[in-house]
Structure formats: structure tokens, C-alpha cells
Amino acid sequence: MNNKDEPPKLFGTSGIRGPIGTAVTADLALKMGKALSTLLGPGHDIVVGYDSRTSSQMLDKALIAGILEGGCNVLSLGMAPTPLVGYATMKLGDAGVMITASHNPPQDNGIKVWNKNGMAYRPNQEKELEKIISDETFSNGSWENIGKVKDIKNTSREYVKNLLNYAHIKPGLKVVVDCASGAASYLSPLVLRKAGCEVITLNSQPDGFFPGRLPEPSEANLQELMKMVKATQSDLGIAHDGDADRMIAIDEKGKMADFDKLVSLMAREVGGRVVTTVDASNSIDMCLEGKGEVIRTKVGDVHVAEAIEENDAFFGGEPSGTWIHPDFCMCPDGILSALRIAALVSEKGPLSKLLDEVPSFPTLREKINCEESQKKMIMEKTEAEFAKLFEDVSEVNLIDGVRLSLENGSWVLIRPSGTESYVRITLGGKTDLEAQKLMDKSKEFMKNLF
Ligand code: MG
Known about the structure:
Elements: E1 16-19, H1 26-40, E2 45-50, H2 56-69, E3 73-79, H3 82-92, E4 95-99, E5 108-115, H4 123-135, E6 149-151, H5 155-166, E7 174-178, H6 187-194, E8 198-202, H7 223-231, E9 236-240, E10 247-250, H8 259-270, E11 272-277, H9 283-288, E12 292-297, H10 301-311, E13 315-317, E14 323-324, H11 334-348, H12 351-356, E15 363-369, H13 372-385, E16 393-397, E17 402-406, E18 411-416, E19 422-428, H14 432-447
Parallel strand pairs: 2-3, 2-4, 3-6, 7-8, 7-9, 11-12, 11-13
Antiparallel strand pairs: 1-5, 4-5, 9-10, 13-14, 15-19, 16-17, 17-18, 18-19
Helix pairs in contact: 1-2, 1-4, 5-6, 6-11
Bound molecules: magnesium ion.
């Protein structure tokens, strides 16, 4: 605890997440259910869904018991990807809860809470829940107003129907979908198939042991998918993380699409005002030149969602593959992202060619050890001194760390990690050589700060 007035922190940058049995327990889920009911007040409807992890049913039952005891009703989706929980919450609920640890290893699980409009709970809302749990100020319902459970599994039909209205794919596109045996194992292939694609599935049976690959859609974990795309001469490969708020694409040559280029491509396709995060490269700005405006915000889907609302933006995308399509729902949706990329490839592909047209910035990332107690001092010095090192700074962005844009399009970000004892340097140069020079200069600068 940092401050004696602050309740102990349970939520991280994307909900509660951690190992089952220690950080995340049935007891915590029960308390979270009671706290949410207390916060909303009795009689409200809370959508609940969970991913394919071995611990998810246990947490689901405990969370539901807590919600009911607090006097709210549960609209139960059972196993469902995060975007369906967000969608159902927007349509039917006063709040939503997704039980998932997203891309974390199988032994972890977590809880993420959603607002009525399908947008993730903001840090100040999470703090209210933390306070109720810490003070144990739960409002238990009396026997006559204990909540009820309603099964809303059928909502997935409406979700699929609405998705299909959203993107049109020319018939015959061949797509391999790898769901990691996660929560979208059934829905994502179904949606693409109904949209007219020829779909080949990989790891598309829900399994909490993740026998085919781990839930993180990293290059190392997607080797099988890349081979499969090539071997089957498919047009596209799609991979999700465990809860399918994210989507990663593989081109027709079996190569993983560069994250920055893919989000730039989608942003250009949508056009207008778009939101991205400070760790995204300047490819997106160059792609949108004359076609729209880029708004950069803090890293994390809740910040992207907030910036979309504030600026009335048409699209929000992080390079991680977490994309929000606000005219559909404020919850990041990896299934819709897949559908939109498939539509783009069917219309203007092949994907490798589309990606080649996006300006590229060789990107380098390094982490510098930095104790929690030093972070504030280091960032203050960085804010005051870093830009002075360069003669050609065109923009200084201080929204999350210090991000400099240089006149030729290169960029450097120095940002403290929110979860670990590091300060991160992320940058993109016009060439590999320039990127390396920028990294050397930034590291030298950091070294002199300590
Ligand atoms: Mg996720």
C-alpha cells in the first residue's frame, strides 16, 4: 500500500490478473461480486462470461454467488469471448464481468469489469470496488431480494448477425483461424464462415490446458499457424489471444504482419479521426496524412476507449492487436477486427502487398532497470532534458512518458513500466542504422540520469 488512505490495489492495467490460488481465488471472485452489487445497488443486471481456463467455472460460480447475495441479477453467458461480454453488456446489462487472464499462461486467471456502454471500468471505478472490498462495506440483500440468474447464451446469435451486417467479404477467401483453444474457439470461425470465407481451424476446441499453443499470440506461439497458412495456400491467417479481444494477422506467405503496419492499414481504411497509443510507430500518421487525424493516448484499452469518446473518433487501435470499433461497441473486439481485415484482403489484397505499401520504421525496444522509488525523478529529468538532445524535434508528447517525433518521421518514447521495475525505451528510425543510433543516444542519456 502506497498511502494509508488508499485501499490495497487489486486491479492492474487490464483488470485483475494473476496465478490461481494466490492472487486470484474463489474468495476474491465472491467479494468482487458482492462489491459490484454494492456499488450498483440492488436490482441491477450484470452480464457474466468466462474464458476456457480450468479455473474459470470456479470463479464464475463464486462471482455469481456474490452478485446474487448483493441483490443484483446475473445475465449468464457461460463461456464467451470478451467482445461478446462487452456487446451483451451494452445491449442488456448495467455492468459486465469477464473472467479471463487474456494472454497470460494457463495457471493464471483474472476479472475484468465493463460499463453499460461496453467500455472497460476506468481506474477510478476500479478503486471504488477495491475500497468496498478492503473496508468490507458490502450491502447484503435480505432473503426477499436476493438476485436471480438468467441464461442469455442466445445473445451470441444476435451478436453474430450484427457482425455480419458490418463487413462484407468477397466469396472464396481462404482463412486459417487459430483460437488458442480459448474463448472464441467456436464463434470466430463461425463468423468468418458465415461471412463467406473458406475456414480452416487450428486450436479451435476450448481447452484450459491450451494443448496446441499458449494463449499469447506471439510469433513463437504462432509457428504452426504460419506453416498452415502457407501449406494450405490460404489468403490469410488469424490468431486470437485467450479471450479474443485481440487479433493478429498472418499474410498469404505465412509471415506475421507487423503490428504497427497492420493497425496503420486498418486506420487508413477507416479514415477520419483515429486513436492510437504512444507506443505506436509513426506509420499510422503517415498513412492517414490528408485522410484523417491521429490522436495518441496512454497505453491500455481503457485509455483508448476514453479518447475515442472524448474525440468522437471512428477507430481505436493499439499495436498489440487490441482494436476498438466504436460504431459497433466500445469493447475491443478481435472477432470483428478479423472480419474487417478479411474484408480488406478480399477487396484489395493480397495482405503482403497491402503491408508493403505502409511506410515502415524499424523498431527497437529496450528496458532499463529502474526502482519504483526512482521512476518519478527519472521521468522528471527526462521531461526536462531529453528533447534538448535533438535539433529536429517536431513534436513532444507527454501524455504517457516522453515521446518525441523527429522531422523525418522517426520517433522515440521513454516510458516507465506500469507493472515492473523498468523504464522502457521504444523507438522507430527511418533505417536500421538510424534506429540503432537513436537507441545508443537514448541509452547514453538514461545512463547519465541515475
Ligand atoms: Mg485479451
